[in-house]
Amino acid sequence: MFEKQKMDVTDRVTAKFHDGGMKLYVDKQPIGEVSYGTSGNEYRFEEGYSQENNKFYQYADVQKQGETQKYTDCDEEAGWC
Length: 81
Known about the structure:
Layout: E1 2-8, E2 13-18, E3 21-26, E4 29-37, E5 40-45, E6 49-52, E7 55-63
Antiparallel strand pairs: 1-7, 2-3, 3-4, 4-5, 6-7
Protein name: DUF2553 family protein
Pfam families: DUF2553
InterPro entries: Uncharacterised_YusG (IPR020140)
């Protein structure tokens, strides 16, 4: 089984200025953007990313500890399962 894990990716986030705000990236993949307004910064993120207390997080499916991965696929034409 898999569970969602919150991983700190702050050190991997880069930003580029764009249309009065900034586009955010992790490993050159867009993860969201920041807009600047009179009431403060507004963050919009792609699914699986968030910002909290000046840190950026990615949510990923990871295997639960203590469980061994089992193979669940078969290729009957090739003769393996």
